[in-house]
Amino acid sequence: MRRALEILNSFINYERIGTAPRDLDRFMEFLRGLGSPHEKLGRVVHIVGTKGKGSTAYHLSHALLGLGFRVGTFTSPHLVDVRERIMLNLRPISGEEFERYFFRIYEKMEKPRKSYRTYFETLTAMAILYFYEKGVDFAVFEAGLGGRLDATNVFPHTTTLITRIDYDHTHILGNTLGKIALEKAYVIREGSRVLSVPQDEEAMEVIKSMAHSRGASLRIVSPERVEGISLDGTRFIYGGRSLRTPAVGRFQAYNASLSLAALESYGIDWKEDIFDGLSVPGRFQVIRYGGKFLVFDVAHNILSLRSVVRTIGEIFPTTRYAVVLSMVRDKSLAGLSEIFSGWRIIATRSSSPRSLPPGELCRQFSRCVSVEDPIEALRTALNEEAEVILITGSTYLVGDVLSNSVWR
User: Fold this and answer.
1) pLDDT 10s per residue in the chain (408 long)?
2) Helix, strand or coil for residue 241?
3) Same domain, yes or no, for 57 and 174?
4) How far is CA 34 from the centre of its chain?
5) pLDDT at 272
6) Same domain, 165 and 57
7) Rounded to an integer, what is the distance from CA 160 to the centroid of its chain?
8) Which runs of E-coded beta strand occur in 143-274?
9) 297 and 254 in a common domain
10) Is 106 part of a structural domain of the chain?
11) Domain check: are 211 and 121 in the same one?
12) Where residue 355 sits, what CATH number does that domain have?
């Protein structure tokens, strides 16, 4: 698999450089050269939004798997191993199959190869072909960036799930909620089913307009009530029934409800224990270490960071907090100091080439320690008096720390 990764990592990677493709025409043409597997997949669920896409994909895939369906799940980015992005029945594709599918795709690439080689599109094509040949009952695809020009926006028929929309990637998607929502709503297919959590008015108007123009049915989905949050998960009421998801956070009740509504849209019934045993890596993932609680969360924008800090306050209301924080250059930093008011701040740099230098990040706070290496940053936090340490701000940072066993 090493050779496959060497070649893959040499491709254009929009996630790392912070830009996006200009059109989907070449990718669609490439898929047709593979035999159009994207047109042959049966039931495709396409998830777009700013916050909660990955968690919703895990909730839905776990539920479908528990109901006896064969499920393909494509998510991004990965935490530790690129194979995490392509899962069959929530198990990452094996190294052997990853290598085999990669080279099948690679051999079909246009020549000269430089004319077509992007990281995300290659993995998307691999996932589509893999899921088709494995005969999945459902293929759950999380969009990477936006929706309109995303490589996952290639299926002729989908059910669309829209998670919470907020400001993110504004240099690519637009600087208003309406523009951002439009980029995401472009994935809605003619006559399809669309399920969305409640949105800000500007975003919701765009979604309603797009659904109407394409003759799609739109359902707004939310839990009736969030009953409680603890380290054991989130309890909520949906459809008059009491449920628990092991995923921690008020917003996880909305992600779980969205996945239940997706089941219902296919006429699939479910029981109250539908989410038992669910695990969502890197989303409020708690590890006890050295008498402290380490909370790993891939929150990487203001909305997500505010949510995870609020959740920590609900579960650990009277403790002292520290955060190991890394952000990328294109994220808004407005409000960071307010979110982490009273926290001990250790700014660091992740493996992302877009990672903000920790010294620059520290300028957002009146008191902040700058530590270049993320493992040293964690060690610095462990030496603080804080009882809860949050590692957040970047998927890359969470992956960097979780994949390094030196600190354990």
Assistant:
1) 899 999 999 988 876 655 666 789 889 999 999 999 999 998 999 999 999 999 999 999 999 999 999 999 999 999 999 999 999 999 999 999 999 999 999 998 866 555 567 899 999 999 999 999 999 999 999 999 889 999 999 999 999 999 999 876 555 566 799 999 999 999 999 999 999 999 999 999 999 999 999 999 999 999 999 999 999 999 999 999 999 999 999 999 999 999 999 999 999 999 999 999 999 999 999 999 989 999 999 998 888 999 999 999 999 997 899 999 999 887 778 889 999 999 999 999 999 988 999 999 999 999 999 999 999 999 999 999 999 999 999 999 999 999 987 766
2) strand
3) yes
4) 27
5) 97
6) yes
7) 15
8) 159-162, 193-196, 217-220, 225-230, 233-238, 241-245
9) no
10) yes
11) yes
12) 3.90.190.20
What is the residue whose two structure tokens read 């396409």?
Answer: 46
Residue 278 lies in a domain: no
Q: Which domain holds residue 115?
A: 2-265
93 shares its domain with 165: yes
Amino acid at 204: M
166-171's contacts with Cβ under 8 Å and 24+ in sequence apart are 166/50, 166/51, 166/301, 166/302, 166/303, 167/50, 167/301, 167/302, 167/303, 167/332, 168/50, 168/301, 168/303, 168/331, 169/145, 169/330, 170/330, 170/332, 171/18, 171/330
Q: What is the DSSP letter of 175?
A: S
Task: For strands 159-162 and 292-296, give the pairing.
Answer: unpaired
Buried b (16+ CB within 10 A) or exposed e, 218-238: beebbbeebeebeeebbbbeb
**Structural domain count, the chain:** 2
| CB of 89 closer than 8 Å to CB of 70 | yes
* Residue 166 to residue 198: CA distance in whole angstroms: 12
In a domain, 72, yes or no: yes
Report d(CA 344, CA 250) in Å as an integer. Answer: 24
Q: What is the pLDDT of residue 323?
A: 98
What burial class does residue 157 get, using C-beta atoms within 10 Å of its C-beta: 0-12 exposed, 13-18 middle, 19+ buried?
A: middle
47 CA to centre of own chain:
10
In angstroms and rounded to an integer, the radius of gyration of the C-alpha atoms of the chain is: 21
Same structural domain, 258 and 289: no
Encoding tokens for residue 386?
């804080």
